[in-house]
Amino acid sequence: MKILVVGGGGREHALCWALHRDIPGATLYAAPGNPGTAALAENLSIPATDVARIVSAVEHQRIDLTVVGPEAPLAAGLVDALRVHGRHVFGPTRSAAELEWSKAFAKDVMETAGVPTAQSETFARLDQALAYIDRHAEPLVVKASGLAAGKGVIVCGTRAEAQQAARAMLADGAFGKAGEEIVVEDFLAGEELSVLALTDGTRTMILPPAQDHKRLLDGDSGPNTGGMGAYCPVSVATDALIARVRRQVFEPVLNEMEERGTPYHGVLYAGLMLAPDGTPNILEFNCRFGDPETQAILPVVPGIMREVAGIAAGGWTPPTPVLAAERAAVTTVLAARGYPDHPAQGAEIRIPTDLGPDVLVFHAGTAGTAGALRVSGGRVLAVTGLAQSVGQAAERSRAACARITFEGRQYRQDIGWREIARAGAA
Fold first, then answer.
1. CB of 94 closer than 8 Å to CB of 75
2. 119-138 mean pLDDT
3. Which helix (H) or strand (E) holds 43?
4. What are the residues whose beta carbons fall under 8 Å from the beta carbon of 24, sequence distance 6 or more?
5. What is the mean pLDDT of residues 162-189?
6. What is d(CA 137, CA 257) in angstroms, rounded to the nearest whole number?
7. Which CATH architecture has domain 191-425?
8. What is the pLDDT, as a whole number, of residue 426?
9. Per the CATH hierarchy, to which homologous superfamily does domain 125-180 belong?
10. Among 36, 110, 219, 312, whose CB has the most other CB atoms within 10 angstroms?
11. What is the mean pLDDT of residues 154-178?
12. What is the CATH number that goes with domain 2-91?
């Protein structure tokens, strides 16, 4: 079996790692891949969004299964193009992936489907947005409707901050096309939770929920980022809560997408905010495996990539409604100096070879070879510690991060702090 993973970040390295574990006889390719995927797959020098060249490579290499990692190739229609050529591919079509590449569309789907979410309005004109913000309660949230690499959500403590964010997007083009339409919504307080489900459009299998840490600094302070770490499992994600999320989120959204003629296949990521009364309000949908959630979830669910292959091939039957984590995992992101605004590039990376069997290092923003690695992105490495508890996994992840060096590296030392605090209070 030949399998292609599209993308070149930490999520794609984790996908290659999991495919190698779950389908050991497969020949793996990555496009474009990175130095980490090169140890498991043949890297193809093709950008993830170059649909024509990827389709050509799939035809030329006779790829049996393509797994799409990032959101940009989904929005570019890669799944559609591969299906036209009769190829098996895991991921939603461009129209179904609009759940991610248009927050305005996602809000409309949620409203129609009756999914709990923050009250919002959508704007393409600055004057209308400013007028709405002027009468909106504080705090509030301003979002670029399009794809903004996880950085297009701005939580504003005041109306003045929100108006500044709206001007930056609609007038100054701070997020390019992604910010030509914005969503202004109520601020929701509570605890965030990432719940991912594999689906063939009708049936679902919910993966062990994870919790992402978006802020740059310890204590959830500092600027918003693409994600500084994640852990799994999360004890607040009880059986009752997951059943509620299935009933109130996944089922109505999948039904609504089917009604609209855009059935959803792949993995659907629901970013939740748990209200104090337990209501799972939806913050956003992603149409792919999360990053860095993937680096925490995949290591604790052996066999998951066989389910991915089954969905792509058709005729899939989920082996269980909810998949449980076999262990605990904590992933800490090592970021470049200056991240997220101006990440410095080129620093040499040194990764010890004796980090142990319970530590996994996934490459994200790296370049070069195993003997001469250098920083080539904002989030450089994702370091996953595995153990029987989140606290132990966090210790292993932090200890490994301390031994991996490159000039100006920065990372949080409190990934999983809520779960660790809950365990200590129990």
1. yes
2. 93
3. strand 42-43
4. none
5. 92
6. 32
7. 2-Layer Sandwich (3.30)
8. 66
9. ATP-grasp fold, A domain (3.30.1490.20)
10. 36
11. 92
12. 3.40.50.20
